[in-house]
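Task card 7
Instruction: Convert sequence to structure tokens.
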Amino acid sequence: MSSRTDGRAGTGGTRGPFAADPLDRSAVAAVGLITLFVVALATAQLTAAKVIALPLPVALPVVGPEITLPGAALAYALTFLASDCYAELYGRRATQVVVNVAFLANFLVLALVWSTLAAPGVNPEVAAAFETALGPAANVVAGSLLAYVVSQNWDVFVFHAIRDRTGRSMLWLRNVASTASSQAIDTAIFVGVAFYLAPTLLGVGSPLPGSVLLALGLGQYLLKLAIAVLDTPIVYLVVGAVRE
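Output:
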């Protein structure tokens, strides 16, 4: 019988990121960032169907007096904050694993929601309200999933392409540049698929006219770009706290 202790030992073993120190700063940060990423992503998936309007202090060309965007915008922006912090601390390959495993987890969220909606409810009114609030539209699901897998992988690629040239310096540049470019891709794919291609090809609702699509996409992107700039100090705080 081997005397080697492994993760199956009754005491919990000595393997894993917390084996040497249960409060290891790097390990705690890794778990925390992955948790933030997954929670924000699941929240975004559940809230994407609600469209909200944010009034602007002045009307902007093309956009108009308000920004129209999915309710998932803030939650989804947090995924880029989490992935950029994770990419800076743990590298490209580890971040790609997180991004793509979380993409698969999207389908689990949808399956669990759909199974709950399909189950008979005791109170018909509550069941109807639940389905109205959480029943994901096919066009929104198609647009959000495709936008996610493309934009998040692009974000990781650009972040590390810049890091390869700058080293640890200029974190602000790779945070803003990667998020700004990936959010542009995300917005174009989501708006284009959810509100034009899916309605046209799948017959889910009516496709929006070009001027409305442009206003919808540009308004969302301006807000996402502002969030990308404003979250840069938070990225510095997280990375600095872990590296101290």
